[in-house]
Every structure is written in C-alpha cells, then in structure tokens.
TrEMBL record:
<dbReference type="GO" id="GO:0004806">
    <property type="term" value="F:triacylglycerol lipase activity"/>
</dbReference>
<dbReference type="GO" id="GO:0005829">
    <property type="term" value="C:cytosol"/>
</dbReference>
<protein>
    <recommendedName>
        <fullName>Alpha/beta hydrolase fold-3 domain-containing protein</fullName>
    </recommendedName>
</protein>
<dbReference type="Pfam" id="PF07859">
    <property type="entry name" value="Abhydrolase_3"/>
</dbReference>
<dbReference type="InterPro" id="IPR029058">
    <property type="entry name" value="AB_hydrolase_fold"/>
</dbReference>
<feature type="domain" description="Alpha/beta hydrolase fold-3">
    <location>
        <begin position="239"/>
        <end position="352"/>
    </location>
</feature>
<feature type="domain" description="Alpha/beta hydrolase fold-3">
    <location>
        <begin position="85"/>
        <end position="178"/>
    </location>
</feature>
<dbReference type="GO" id="GO:0004771">
    <property type="term" value="F:sterol ester esterase activity"/>
</dbReference>
<dbReference type="GO" id="GO:0019433">
    <property type="term" value="P:triglyceride catabolic process"/>
</dbReference>
<dbReference type="InterPro" id="IPR013094">
    <property type="entry name" value="AB_hydrolase_3"/>
</dbReference>
Length: 397
C-alpha cells in the first residue's frame, strides 16, 4: 500500500504536506471536515504551482510545494483541535512511519486529535542540528497559530511523543525552547515564583496558573511590569511549551556512559556498537559537546528540568537505555514535574509498534499510553488567566 496516495486502513485522513519547509504526515482517525477542506486547498495550490514549473525529468525527486501563508494570525478564526506531535525513531538514519501508523491511528481515535509527524532530514547527509532545528520550526508554527490557514484549525493542546531517537528529539525540543528562550522564560519564572503549575491560555498565548486566578497571591504590579517589559508580545506570536511529553525507550544520553543496563545489553534492536555509531554520526559536522542538553537531554540542569511538562516514559527491562530512563524520570519527579515511568517485561528497544503484532506486554503498554494521552487531553479545562494586551487589564473567564 502506498501511504502517499491512499489512507491507511482505519484512518479517515492521511496526507503529506509542508509545514515550515518540512514534509509532515497528517493523520486523523475520524473525519474532520475543517482539516479535509484545508488539505484539498493545499493540494489545489500545489497543482497550480507545479503547472507553472519547467518540465520535470521523470527521474526527478517529488517536489513539495509549501502552502503560502496568507496572514500572520494566531488562529482565532479557526476551530481548535488537540495535536499529537509525533517524532519517529530510526536512529536518525530512517523514519519508522510505516510501523508507527497502527498505534498512531489508535492514539488519534482515543484522543480525538490530529497526529502530525515531521519528516525531518536524516543522517548521513544531515547531522546535528538540522533535525532538531526543523522540528522546532514545525512545533513553533503549530504553537503560534501560523499553521491554522494550512490545516484549517489551530492547535489547542499539543503533546509531543517520540520513540528511541525520536524520544531524544522530543525531549531536546523542550530543552531548546527554554535554552534559546523561544518560550518566554519571564512568564515561566513568574509562575514558578508563585509556586504554581503552568497553564496555557490559547486565546492570548500566555502561560499562567489556575489557582492564581482566585488567589490573593497574584501580584498585579509584577504582572503589569511583566507586560511592560515584553512589548514585543503585541507584534509577535507567543510560542508555548508542549502540554505533555510521552517517550518510549528514549535515547537521552549520546555519551558513551557506562551503566548496568548498557553493560549487560543483549537487545537485538539496539546493540552497543550501533549506539556509539549513531552518536558519532549525529555530531559529525558539529562542535557541540555530547553532553549539551539539546544533544543529550539527560544532562539538562535542574533549572531546565523543572520546566518540563507532564511526562510519561515507557521502557523495558531489556532496553540498554533503561537506566537512563529511570534516572531521568527520578530527576523530573524530584524537580516537581508530574512524571511517570512505565517499565515493561521482556520487550526489545522501541516496542510501541509491537502492540499490533500479538505481544501482550506491548498491547498493555499501548492501552496505558492511550489512557494517559486521553486523560491529559480531555482534562477538564480550568479557569484561565487572560491578559489583554491593548488595555493591560486583568480578565478572568
């Protein structure tokens, strides 16, 4: 079956389009007219643009035509839809979208969300930081609302998921958003100073906390000063952190660290030599250190770890990266992040795709992942703090 021309069994929508210059797979289990209409419009424009191109040789690579953005909009005129932003594994050398499709379709059905999988550039032609930069560009376009004219909806909650090397990129994305201050750390720090969890307001693009709304601890003078110091919010769109992070056997540490699970490694999917080869190839054209948090999120500082969203980490007792996952989960929990570790028995590295292959442990883990996603995305919306840019007044809804 050709994924590019036909929808996989069970998917109402399965298309490939361009977002921020990156080919992305769009998957939706249930019919969604707003998305279907937008995708048809995308392909019509692509056909019109192709018709004006010079003659294309038969052996040329397929041409991907990006949908031209009409206006700079945060998507207020579009319906909201939850998004699962999935990053495939494959050791940075290949994409595993074909094997991931069955469980991605299930996730879409369980959460009534749209799954978006960026087809980031691969080794050996493209090494660090190409892939993480592309992923960041696509995520920022989703978060800011730039993709609303392309997709026909604005992203409501966004959960980032990743398996194996995709788990590296998923957690690296959080680090990059914070380290490079793509998200507004002033707002994040303000919420942290108040001792509250973060809450995103989709209408204005601010991160605040639910209990501050009814609490006398809200310092209006600090909040007004925060706005005055960030006049650029009036002109630019705000990128937020993901609402959740779900990882499976993530490659968190690209250093050649020694741990019991690596020493006794007998995993058929990820032999020790392959992990070393991946690390060397990934950084072949970069001077970045292997222990930089955007390369190896395992080494993120506590001040960075505390900004991570609610997290679920899946792993296996046979995974050579088990110890890294256990320690990373412990650090997240120590810093107050709502993080859960789910360890399966007798499954190889990167086992999500085995859920539809008759492996009971994989099926159980698959159901738990769907339940976690559904609970996170369907959680009852709390009161949110809105900040009016124009009048700089506090509005509670």
């Amino acid at each position: 079956m050709n994924f590019y021309n036909t929808c996989p069994t069970g998917a109402a929508i399965a298309e490939r389009i361009i977002i921020s210059g990156v080919p992305c797979f769009i998957i939706c289990r249930n019919p969604y007219p707003a998305l279907s209409t937008a995708l048809k419009r995308f392909h019509r424009q692509a056909e019109r643009e192709v018709s004006h191109l010079p003659d294309i040789l038969e052996d040329d690579e397929p041409r991907y035509i990006a949908y031209s953005k009409r206006t700079q909009s945060n998507g207020d005129d579009y319906p909201a839809k939850d998004v699962i932003f999935h990053l495939t594994g494959g050791g940075f050398f290949t994409h595993t979208i074909a094997g991931d499709l069955p469980f991605l379709i299930d996730w879409s059905a369980a959460t009534e969300s749209v799954v978006i999988c960026p087809e980031y550039d691969l080794l050996p032609e493209h090494s660090f930081p190409v892939a993480i930069n592309q992923i960041t560009d696509v995520f920022c376009a989703l978060s800011s609302g730039d993709t609303a004219p392309i997709l026909g909806f604005r992203a409501n909650k966004i959960v980032v998921t990743g398996e194996s090397s995709g788990g590296n990129l998923a957690s690296s994305l959080i680090c990059k958003l914070c380290i490079e201050e793509i998200v507004d750390l002033n707002v994040l720090r303000f919420a942290k100073e108040q001792g509250q969890d973060f809450l995103y307001n989709e209408a204005e693009g601010f991160l605040f906390t639910p209990s501050l709304v009814a609490s006398e601890s809200l310092d209006n003078s600090k909040l007004n000063k925060l706005v005055e110091d960030n006049d650029h919010w009036k002109e630019t769109q705000v990128v937020r952190l993901p609402d959740g992070l779900m990882l499976n056997c993530p490659v968190l540490n690209l250093c050649e660290s020694i741990s019991p699970s690596r020493v006794v490694n007998k995993d058929p999917i990820l032999p020790s030599g392959f992990l070393t080869a991946i690390s060397q190839a990934y950084l072949s054209a970069s001077s970045a250190s292997r222990d930089h948090p955007i390369v190896s999120p395992f080494f993120a500082s506590d001040h960075l770890i505390e900004f991570f969203p609610p997290t679920l980490i899946c792993t296996s007792n046979l995974d050579p990266l088990l110890d890294d996952a256990v320690e990373f989960n412990a650090r997240l929990r120590h810093m107050g992040v709502h993080s859960t570790l789910r360890a399966t028995q007798d499954l190889p590295h990167a086992f999500w795709g085995l859920a539809h292959a008759g492996f009971p442990e994989a099926e159980m883990a698959h159901r738990e992942c769907m339940s976690w996603l559904a609970n996170l995305l369907r959680k009852e919306r709390k009161k949110q703090l809105l900040l009016c840019h124009e009048e700089k007044e506090l509005i509670i809804t």
